[in-house]
Amino acid sequence: MAAAAAGSGTPREEEGPAGEAAALQPQAPTSVPGARLSRLPLARVKALVKADPDVTLAGQEAIFILARAAELFVETIAKDAYCCAQQGKRKTLQRRDLDNAIEAVDEFAFLEGTLD
Question: According to the UniProt record, where is the region Disordered (predicted)?
Answer without folding.
Answer: 1-35
